[in-house]
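For this section, I looked closely at a protein sequence along with its fold in token form, which I now present.
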Amino acid sequence: MSQTASSAQPAKSNSPPPKEAMDAFRRDIDAVKKEVGKVIVGNDEIVDGVLISMIAGGHVLLEGVPGLGKTMLVRTLASALDLSFSRVQFTPDLMPADILGTTVLVEEGGGKRFEFQRGPVFANMILADEINRATPKTQSALLEAMQEGSVTIAKSTYKLDQPFFVLATQNPLEMEGTYPLPEAQLDRFFFKLHVGFPDREELHSILDRTTGTASAEVKPVLSRQRILELRWLSREVSVARHVQDFAIRVLQATHPDGPGAPDMVKRFVRFGSSPRGVQAVLMASKIRALMDGRFAPSEDDVRASALAALRHRVIMNFEGEAEGIRADAVLEKILETIKKAEK
């Protein structure tokens, strides 16, 4: 999570956010969701997950088969926010300079000089479409931007404007011509969200909206400065020690040699989540509490955030991959085991 956004705010106080600030938080989030809902049908959990990640200062990996509206969701969200937006279509021949920018020789006043031309990464919101189609070299071009909020070209470092938010998409079915994201890249995504197939009523709504003459107009309802204020407000939320301890126990149980790890983890997991995972869980829990009108998160908020924050950080071993064991099943078993242990 970026330090740049935090440094732009006043010194943190230890008092809980006042009710007026919390009510304004909910109104702003509801306004964004209302605008997004003009275009996007269903997928409420996905929209919530994207908004939570954005407020927390993280990034999102959206996984789903083509045609489920992943790209449309990002475009609609960009329209509902007063942020600069750029889209990068990842392909096998995409180069790092196509994302970051490059230094070119320009003529001026009869002389020549080198000038850095900024790439599409210099925007508040980046859509990395089909990110797993690019080579690992190109994928890694986003690492510094996602973690440090900066871009280094040659010997010069350029700070990115905050908020900076990468929303990447990938197709889980297509294998030919794709390059799996390395663990270091996956770990920099705050959430990994699975976009499911719409049900019958949602399909009716999609057809009604897309096969007629009417088109929805999405208006910006949240400014850049307000997003930074919401981010700071979420950090003001206090967490009870037992809730934080619960999140830590979930993290430790993702490791085969960790305390409280169930047999399923010991058998099928190679490596558990990094500390970034529990940071994401706790920040998401704070934001969920605010969205629900509460001053402090509960263990239920931790449970609601655990799968999206940890599923891409749990690495299965050979036996787990061979038997098709998914990280979600492992995490659900961990939550179930800890819940039984508390009784």
Q: What stands out?
A: The radius of gyration is 21 Å. The chain has two domains: 16-92+120-211+222-236, 238-343. The chain is about 45% helix and 15% strand. The first helix runs from residue 4 to 7.
